[in-house]
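We treat protein structure as text, and this decision shapes the records that our systems exchange. We quote a single record here, exactly as it is kept in our systems:
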Amino acid sequence: MLSDWLTHNSFAYPWFLPLLLVVPYMLYWYIKTNNKQTASFTITTTHFLQNTGNWKTRLRHIPFSLRCLGLICLIIASARPQKKFTEQQTEGEGIDIVLCLDISGSMTEQDFQPSRLEASKAVAKDFVQSRPGDRIGVVIFSSQSFTLCPVTTDHNTVLNQINTITNGYLQDEGTAIGSGLATSVDRLKESKSKSKVIILLTDGVDFGGVIPPDIAKNMAKLYGIKVYTIGVGSEKEMDVQVQSAFGTTTQKKKLEFNEALLKELATETGGQYFHATDNEALKKIYASINQLEKNKVQLTSYNRYTDEFINFLLAGLILIIIEIILRLTLFKKFP
């Protein structure tokens, strides 16, 4: 909690803070003088004294504690704590981008670490963070497609939505590339941006969903949308569960995707096709797309501060006043 407060706050006059070192010295002096106090008369034995302490003796350190806390609050108030708000002003025109992600069952394969889906999510989030000023949306698909997040400049929302993606988010299994692409096009067709891009990532073969890939491709061409396609899958053979006459068995199988289709979608819409075989290759692909799709956006950051010293000032004054009242009343010493 303290670290979070320090992250979002600063001090206008931090040179007052070293005065806090006075408090440990006060504590040391208080303990030292308190231990040196002696009785006002001497007796030879104490065996007849039972339960001599009362509530005043047990609570006698409270005034001093209040003084220390009050002094700490007043010193912090003198340093003038401020809460910082960062505002950004965008100048120029960004790019509208839709991340179209395959979340079918094969995306849980672990030829990528920790899995194809988790690796794709991690790289997608890095890509979003590297595109300030762009409007970005997310579409997911398996046998059907779904708009997880419409195009927006609120990148925190985009990142949060990517974090929610799990296998089984769409219950039906399969790989409907055409449906995923068509939904992505639908998210961009009304865009007024001069540059519109879809990044489609899949590891499967289109099984023929509601909308064929050819129709989705023509839709993208009609609205001037470039499609970058990424085929995910290593050359390794994976263990897959198959049903046979003897029950469920494990077989070695190389998981393939329709590379020819992905190349066609990319080439005919003005994009490019990439093949990712591991985590590092996937990172490089997104970095390449990041370079190919340059945006002319200038972000200017402004820091705005609001003072928060008043709470510390009031707390310090109240603690000191209470300490004075206690010393003059309940804890008053008589000579």
Observations:
- The radius of gyration is 34 Å.
- The CA atoms of residues 260 and 273 lie 10 Å apart.
- The mean pLDDT is 83.
